[in-house]
Write a structure and sequence with these properties.
The chain has about 375 residues and is α+β, with helices and mostly antiparallel strands. The protein is built from 11 helices and 21 strands. It has a 6-stranded mixed sheet with strand order 4-3-2-1-5-6, with helices on both faces. Strands 7-8-9 form a 3-stranded antiparallel sheet, with no helix packed on it. The chain has a 3-stranded antiparallel sheet with strand order 11-12-14, covered by helices on one side.
Length: about 375
């Protein structure tokens, strides 16, 4: 994988520029600094990243960040402010004083700052998002952070499964503590578990019955017996910013035979894809193998069936490179990826199972440590 300096050189630039808060994965990866207000980061060739921060953040940035740190005053803000009041032009002049350009910027770089920088030198847009690809191979430390988030995900999943397993069944509806068990109750209980691990999750899926035919339906209302329940949780570790991701499909009591058949097909596809993954295999080849497998079983994949990719990279973003889709490139040792085959039909429901693991030269090293069990 190319170094960041190589990416900058290949673009014909002198520096990579970011203007973002730590909600931006590239910013957090480059600096390891957490701030809710955007700051300017400048990565020059053969130099560590340089971060320009307000005076109030300087001591904390020096202590916590991997980057070199300058205050805005040290970067010339007050001097520039004497003749320029436009905040974007002030930012551009501070950057230009530190590096003459040309500049390489990400696709989501502020347009106003791009225009201001262009008055000094050429601005190239990293339209292929090569900086994202630069993050795709994880260090052992990053992998450890993802594993920690995954253990939190498994604990939350275990709480959800336990609620469903031990629920009473009354007229086909699951009951817990004298009230119907709903998607919202299960999510709430999962969130409590995640908070104990200092993790948070958004849009956790607890979908039941017909809702499961829509892959990203978060779910609403009472959970039913003898019906598929898709549970998909993808928490973020609040300390590190790294994510995990897992999905299980369960049923309280035996579901319809057609649902059980979907589950067997999806489980077998998951295990098959795990055997395929290794350094040097393409994500597209893995995806196509699963698609062909489903097709051979008679499961069409057009507007229904296998209607999403096989998986994706996981890290500071829940969906990042590499992709295991029809256009997915080569997998490399050190990638952390999900494998999540699924089948979805409006008249049956849906089944998805997802494991997380590390791509290694010898194969797929599964991180997820949780049973493949449907009927509870």
């Amino acid at each position: 994988m190319d170094s960041l300096d190589d990416l900058i050189r290949d673009a014909g630039a002198a520096a990579y520029c970011l203007y973002a808060s730590s909600d931006n994965a590239a910013m957090r990866h480059m600096t390891r600094f957490v701030t809710h207000d955007p700051v300017t980061i400048l990565k020059r060739i053969d130099k560590p990243p340089l971060m320009i921060v307000p005076q109030m953040e300087a001591d904390r940035a020096l202590r916590e960040s991997l980057a070199d740190v300058l205050t805005r005053q040290q970067a010339g803000y007050l001097e520039i402010f004497e003749h320029e009041k436009d905040p974007w032009k002030i930012q551009a002049e501070m950057i230009h004083r530190l590096c003459a350009g040309p500049y390489l910027v990400p696709p989501d770089f502020p347009t106003a700052l791009t225009r201001a920088l262009e008055s000094y030198d050429t601005v190239y847009v990293d339209s292929s998002s090569r900086l994202t690809a630069h993050r795709a191979i994880k260090t052992p430390e990053e992998t450890g952070w993802i594993i920690r988030a995954q253990r939190a995900a498994e604990a939350a999943m275990d709480r959800a499964v336990s609620l469903i397993r031990y629920a009473d069944i009354r007229s086909g509806v699951l009951w817990h503590e004298d009230s119907p068990l709903t998607s919202d109750i299960v999510r709430y209980e999962m969130n409590k578990v995640l908070l104990a691990y200092d993790c948070t999750a958004r849009d956790t899926i607890v979908a039941c019955g017909p809702e499961t035919a829509m892959p990203h339906c978060t779910g609403n209302g009472e959970l039913k017996a003898h019906a598929p329940i898709v549970i998909d949780v993808f928490p973020c570790d609040n300390k590190t910013g790294y994510h995990a991701d897992m999905t299980r499909t369960v049923s309280r009591g035996e579901p319809a035979g057609s649902v059980s058949e979907l589950y067997t097909a999806v489980k077998d596809a998951l295990l098959m894809s795990e055997r395929m993954v290794r350094d040097g295999v393409s994500g597209a080849a893995c995806y196509q193998a699963v698609r062909d497998y489903f097709s051979d079983l008679g499961y069409r994949s057009d507007t229904e069936g296998f209607i999403h990719s096989l998986g994706h990279g996981v890290g500071l973003e829940i969906h990042e490179q590499p992709s295991l889709s029809g256009t997915g490139g080569l997998l490399h040792a050190g990638n952390v990826i999900t494998l999540e085959p699924g089948l979805y039909y409006r008249d049956i429901g849906g089944v998805r199972i997802e494991n997380l693991g590390i791509v290694e030269k010898s194969g797929f090293s599964r991180i997820t440590d949780y049973p493949l069990e449907m009927v509870l």
